[in-house]
Amino acid sequence: MDEYILMNSTMPEQPEPYWRDSFDVESFPTLEEDLDVDVVIVGGGISGITTAYRLSEEGLKIALVEADVLLNGTTGHTTAKITAQHGAIYDELTSHLGKEKAKLYYDAATDAMAFIQNLVQDKKIDCDFSNEDAYLYTTMNTGVNKLQNEFEAYKQLGIKGELVQTIPLNLPVKAALVMKGQAQFHPLKYLSYLVGKIKENGGFIFEHTVAEDIKEGNQPTVLTRGGSKVTANSVVVASHFPFYDGGGLYFSRLHVERSYILAAKVPKGECPDGMYLNVDSPSRSLRYTMQDGEKLALIGGEEHKTGQGINTKYHYDALEQYGMELFSDLNIEYRWSTQDMVTLDKVPYIGKVSRMHQNIFVASGYRKWGMTNGTMAGLLLSDLILKRENRYESLYRPSRFIADPSVKHFITHNADVAKQLLKGKFDKNEKHPDDVKKDEAAVVTVNGKRAGAYRDSEGQLHVVDTTCTHMGCEVHWNDGDRSWDCPCHGSRYSPSGDVLEGPAKKPLKKL
Ligand SMILES: Cc1cc2nc3c(=O)[nH]c(=O)nc-3n(C[C@H](O)[C@H](O)[C@H](O)COP(=O)(O)OP(=O)(O)OC[C@H]3O[C@@H](n4cnc5c(N)ncnc54)[C@H](O)[C@@H]3O)c2cc1C
Questions:
Q1: Nearest CA to 397 among 415, 382, 412, 377?
Q2: Superfamily for the 433-501 domain
Q3: What is the pLDDT of residues 388-415, one digit of tens each?
Q4: What is the pLDDT of residues 332-343, one digit of tens each?
Q5: Which atom of ligand 1 lies nearest, measured to the CA of 46?
Q6: Closest residue (by CA) to atom 3 of ligand 1?
Q7: 263, β-bridge pairs
Q8: Pocket test for ligand 1, best of 54, 75, 277 (most atoms within 8 A of CB)
Q9: At what angle do helices 90-97 and 141-157 cross, to 10 degrees?
Q10: All structural domains of the chain with their residue ranges
């Protein structure tokens, strides 16, 4: 690709999500001693916090352990639409899993949305919550059929929706499917309320505490990198990609997709209410949020497998172009990107980590619909831990193995991992570390071996072994977020090789 030229001079240099800039999340200490609790929950995103909230409200003694700071993973970088319209999923679920499961999936998303809405209303949580209509749209003839099939699935499943010809967006749409009365919010404001309640209920919360492994048994123990241990009756792995596999083979059953978001001020009156998502390729999404009484448009899309995208700045450029099609002007205030997991059959894995372990639970694979799926994880996992019936248990059971179409995906995904394992290992890289300029990175050859070199703004060179420490794939440079990203399971590392996102637990080898 030719050298990238920013289309708009207002594009921020560093990626930062609007959510984190507009709200301060409380800080918590690092775990420095051993602890005994009823339940230990690993991961401070929507899944971990909702589970911890629910269990602490029921009087259980919980510990929430976060490797970084709370709400700085995918939940801190989301778009935060709260809806049961998870793309054009219902036609696909009906044909692959059957009508009953497809309906159950819809009911679960609706229940999760109702849980959030009721809590916000009952507790008067100030979190910019608003009810909005959700639209799926297409600007291509090929998308019309897809939306018609999806609408047929709505009718079969009793989902309220309407097929329409126009939408409030300034786009030449061919068809659109609306699901009314959905919602959106500021995820950090909402989840900080839950965090406050966990504290009030006597729960322990620790940050900068990396869970490295679980010692299994009747009383499983989470072992942390600092050496402290937390022993409990149950452990919940809510670390996005499960940091502990427990025989569930998650590395072969989950793939990771990355997407990009711009937040921009647009001329008054041009950004409509509502939440929008196309069914075409490349993906495009829009919602607004209020900033100081004015609408800020959140423009998203450009998804690709992590580490397999082209020049990352190119993706921001493409979103900016989309924004310019929608609005007469754009003042881009924020840009950021993040990733989410996708399961083989597109239904999340929420439940016991595998058949071998009755007291270790997992929640992952939300396919970019974690506001409802992550909330459902909190509701379902707390019911399982409290030994209560939950009608969604079998739908989400991680040990399910559905032959069609997951076998095909299983084979394709593992073939892709195998390809990525080999890819790049034997490439000849002519570049030498001396060729790398300030604030640039490149794959170089050091002593005949592939290596990654980054020169910081002070001129200091950081050279790392580009072999991912999770399963040995070769990492690639992500110039938008300045990180080394793994194409196989989405681990991400800082320019100097420290782990930013798992499943990798160890840093890249420094050379
Ligand atoms: C671009 C994009 C847009 C999206 N938009 C929407 C949307 O509009 N609506 C919607 O419903 N969903 C959306 N999603 C999906 C949603 O944001 C995610 O599914 C959800 O936030 C995942 O939450 P989580 O709690 O599982 O993971 P996270 O929020 O990532 O939390 C996991 C936490 O675990 C911690 N952790 C990891 N490993 C360890 C360890 N070893 N020890 C301790 N802690 C650890 C991490 O640091 C992290 O804080 C979007 C996703 C993407 C990628």
A1: 377
A2: Rieske [2Fe-2S] iron-sulphur domain (2.102.10.10)
A3: 999 999 999 999 865 455 556 666 666 6
A4: 999 999 999 999
A5: 25
A6: 78
A7: 298, 334
A8: 75
A9: 60
A10: 19-78+188-253+346-405, 433-501
